Amino acid sequence: MNKFFFFLFFTLSLSIFAQTNVKKDLKDIETLEQAEDYIGEKKSRKKKLMVFNTEKHHSKLAKELLEMPAGFTKTERTQFNKTHYKVVKKENEPHYRISYIYFDGNKMPVDEIYNLRKTIMTKYAKGVDFGDLAKKYSMADNARKGGDSGWVKDGQLPIEIEEEANNLAHQVDDIFDVGITDDNGFYIIKKTHRLQLIKEVYVLKVQEEID
Residue 203, exposed/middle/buried by CB under 10 A (0-12, 13-18, 19+)? Predict the structure, then answer.
C-alpha cells in the first residue's frame, strides 16, 4: 500500500513539475526566434507556431488572439489536455492581392503561350471576366478560384510578381504580363486590390496532456 501511495505521489509530482515547466518556458519566450528554438527542428502537433490575420481568420479563437497584446497567453482546457496560446509578435503587415493566369513554359511551347496571352488580353479588353478567363486557361492550382491569390505579403510570391503588384503605376483592374526566368513561368496578372495594412499575430501553440 505504501508503494502505491509513493507511486501516486511521484506521478502527480511529475505532472505538476511538467506543467510548471511549460508555464515557465512560455513566460521566458519573448521573440519569434526564441519560439522557433523552443519548437525545434522536429515538427509536432504539441508545439507549433501559428499566424492569424484579420482578413483570413474569423473564428472565435482567432479574434481573441488578434485582440490580445503581445506577451499574453490564453489557455484552453479539455478533459485530457491543456492548450496554451502565447502571442509572441503582433504587427500590421502590408499585403497585396491579385488574380493571375499562369502558364508553365516547361509544358507548353512559348509561341503558344504568347498567342494565348494575346487572346486573353483581347478578350479582357472586350469585357470578358478575368476570373472566367483564369478558370479556362490558367495552369495554376487556384484556377478554380478565378486565379485569386488571396491576401499575400512580400516573400510569398516570386519577386517579379511582387514588384509589379506593388507598382503604384498600376491601377486596380489593370492587367499586365510577367515572365519568371527561374522556372520558365509566364503570368497574366490583374491588380484587384490596393496595398493594405492587415493586423497579424504570431502565436506559439503548446499542448500538454493532463494525467
Answer: buried
